[in-house]
Design brief:
By secondary structure, this protein is an alpha/beta fold. The chain has a single domain, classed as SGNH hydrolase (Rossmann fold). The protein is about 40% helix and about 10% strand. It contains 6 helices and 6 strands. Strands 2-1-3-4-5-6 form a 6-stranded parallel sheet, with helices on both faces. Helix 5 links the parallel strand 4 and strand 5.
């Protein structure tokens, strides 16, 4: 098994866990025990549209792709949390625009992933680790992006790793928005299980865990 990791700092988290194993290292160690390996193509700070550029470096012998992207697209819209508006319809209108634009970008990314002909899985954006009340606001806003991910994955028949159910509390985070080695270990165990056990040939969207 040769797993390629694409997306953002959720998978390229080395700078946030200095002295501890990064996600790619954790997954590499796990797969190496069975003769497998990992290629890290994800880049800290990248957005959904950048995954298309990352695919240019995809090794031909990669057997599975894991993609975690969208968190930085959401961060680009974080100003909505603090904007003063006279009517709720203004906020809902802005969110509808954000939803439509993100959906177009995410579908284009999935088209590019399908074009590789390789099995792939995508990830939801996990909840934030902010202090309340900002956490509640941020997590609610993230549901707009996660709705896109789930809808698009359903259309594509791709499995989804639901990171919202993987990260259970502050012990899984390096800071308000990045995974530490504890959260990383949970993720990579699930990544390996999905690559090993999911029936990709069925083109069926399954939510893990």
């Amino acid at each position: 098994m040769h797993v390629a990791l694409l997306g953002d700092s959720i998978l390229d988290n080395g700078r946030y866990v200095r002295g501890k194993p990064a996600v790619s290292e954790q997954l590499g160690d796990l797969l190496a025990a069975r003769g497998g390996r990992v290629t890290l193509l994800a880049r800290d700070g990248d957005r959904v549209g950048d995954v298309l550029d990352q695919l240019a470096g995809l090794p031909q012998d990669a057997t599975h792709l894991i993609v975690s992207a969208g968190g930085n697209d959401a961060l680009d819209q974080s100003g909505l949390l603090d904007r003063e508006m006279a009517r709720s319809s203004e906020l809902l209108g802005d969110l509808a625009t954000v939803h439509a634009r993100f959906a177009a970008a995410y579908r284009a990314m999935l088209d590019a992933l399908r074009a590789t002909g390789k099995p792939f899985a995508v990830c939801t954006i996990y909840d934030s680790n902010f202090e309340q009340p900002r956490k509640a606001l941020a997590d609610t806003a993230l549901s707009v992006f996660n709705d896109v991910i789930l809808r698009c994955a359903g259309e594509a028949g791709a499995p989804v790793v639901d990171l919202r159910r993987v990260f259970a509390g502050p012990a899984d985070y390096a800071n308000p928005i990045e995974p530490n080695e504890v959260g990383g270990a949970k993720m990579v165990a699930l990544f390996a299980a999905v690559c090993r056990d999911h029936d990709f040939g069925a083109r069926r969207c399954v939510l893990y865990p």
